Amino acid sequence: MELILLRHADTESGASFADDSLRPLTSRGRQVQEQVARELHRRGFNPDVILSSPRLRAEQTAWITAQVLPGDVTVVEVPELDGGYAVEDLLKRLQNYLDCQRLCCTGHEPDVTFWTNALLATDQMQVPGFSKSGVASIQFEREPVVHSGRLNYFYTADDLLL
After folding, report:
1. By the 8 A CB rule, do 30 and 8 touch?
2. pLDDT of residue 16
3. Exposure on the CB side of residue 137, measured as CA atoms within 13 A
4. Nearest one of 107, 109, 149, 99 to 129, comparing CA atoms
5. At how many degrees (to 10) do helices 56-68 and 27-42 cross?
6. Is the Cβ–Cβ distance between 109 and 127 less than 8 Å?
7. Dist CA 85 CA 122 (whole Å)
8. Half-sphere exposure of residue 138, counting CA atoms within 13 Å on the CB side?
9. What CATH architecture applies to the domain 2-12+21-136+146-161?
10. What contacts 143, CB < 8 A, 6 or more positions away?
11. Helix %, strand %, coil % for the chain, to 5?
């Protein structure tokens, strides 16, 4: 299985939102995410399913990404991507998607960095941190297990849009 971890795109300032989970993407964030998704697709990105945090900014990132891809890519909201969950909780949720060849998870910092580094084999380079619209792909021989993945790629939005 290939597991792709994607950080949400740029968001509106939290100062104007009493509920952080309702912060939407900025218009620039939507535009950048669409361009990132197009470039990822050009490079072979085509997940079977996109799982998303229930926070609005992650959902919007997931839907923008899904709409750029050909066919009907399903977006599913899952609480384990909301933030603050242990990698074991994420892995338990992923058990429901073992029939997928490629699975994308859209979430938040610092979780996506922590999960990526926890899933990489100990001989793999650790990723430094996800920027907005940053993405990493981890390949597993079978199902995702801690310290067993191989890093396929790690891109910032700038890497993809140059």
Report:
1. no
2. 81
3. 15
4. 109
5. 40
6. no
7. 21
8. 27
9. 3-Layer(aba) Sandwich (3.40)
10. 1, 94, 95, 98
11. 40, 20, 40
Q: Which residues pair with 2 in a beta bridge?
A: 102, 139
89: tokens are 């909780």
At residue 95, the pLDDT reads 97
Q: How far are the Cα atoms of 11, 96, 120, 123, 127 from residue 147, in angstroms, in the given order? A: 32, 20, 5, 9, 14
**The overall pTM is greater than 0.85:** yes
Q: Looking at residue 17, what is its pLDDT?
A: 84
Instruction: Identify the three-state secondary structure at position 126.
Output: coil
Q: Where are the domains of the chain?
A: 2-12+21-136+146-161
Residue 162, pLDDT score? 83
CB 21 within 8 Å of CB 35: no
Question: Which residues of the chain fall below pLDDT 50?
Answer: none
pLDDT digits (tens, 9 = 90+) for 117-149: 999 999 999 999 999 999 999 999 999 999 999
Residue with tokens 């998704």, as numbered in its chain? 37
Q: Reduce the DSSP state of residue 148 to 3 states and report it.
A: coil
Six-digit token string for 83: 């933030």
Length of the chain: 162
